[in-house]
Amino acid sequence: RCPHRGVPLALGRQEFPGTWSCWYHGWTYDLADGTMVACLTDGPDSPLCGKVRVKTYPVEERLGLVWLFVGDGQAPPVERDIPSELLSQPNSRAGRITVRPGNWRLAAENGFDEGHAKFLHRNSLWTLLRRMPAFSRTHVEPTEGDWITRKTTAVGMEEIDYPGLGTWPKRDWWRQRGGAPVCSIRLPGCLRIAYPGWTHYEWYVASDADHHRYVQLAAKFTVGLSAWWFKMRYWTYIRWIFHGLFNDEDAVMVETMDIPPERLYRPDVSIIAWRKLCERPR
Question: DSSP H helical segments within 158-268, as ranges?
Answer without folding.
Answer: 224-233, 247-256
